[in-house]
Amino acid sequence: MNKKVLIAYYSWSGHTAKLAQLLQQVTGGTLYEIKVGADVFSSDMYATSDIATKQRAEQALPELVGALPDVSQYATVLIGGPVWSGDLATPVLKFVQQVTPVAGVLAPFYTDAGTVGDYEAAFAKAAAQPVQPGLGTNGSGTLAQVQAWWRRFE
Prior knowledge:
InterPro entries: Flavodoxin/NO_synth, Flavoprotein-like_sf. The protein has about 150 residues and is of the alpha/beta class.
């Protein structure tokens, strides 16, 4: 039985990268960083929020850099990113649109600075397939949070 886990993530500030690394530690999964060009977003959180809002409004999501992983090779696909204005970060949205549907288990994980909105519903809508309950953390999360969440998949 295939038990391989893919942990795909986009991290603007580093919090989601730390959460992805905790997930890798717990699951033994493969990390895949979702990347965009260096000039796509600002280093300023508010300017980045404005850029992402414009991308959504114009349906002009950022191009992803690098080859996409073959999700068919994984039994579980975890996709993570920061919550931007209660929604998926636009690189995560683009990635979800490009790799779904997946044949195995699909679940989101996400980091926020206070406003989650309806992130999991937005993720499920973008994926257009059944999605397992996600792992949301304020900041990078803790090993205990990740372990408790992962137990439902074992």
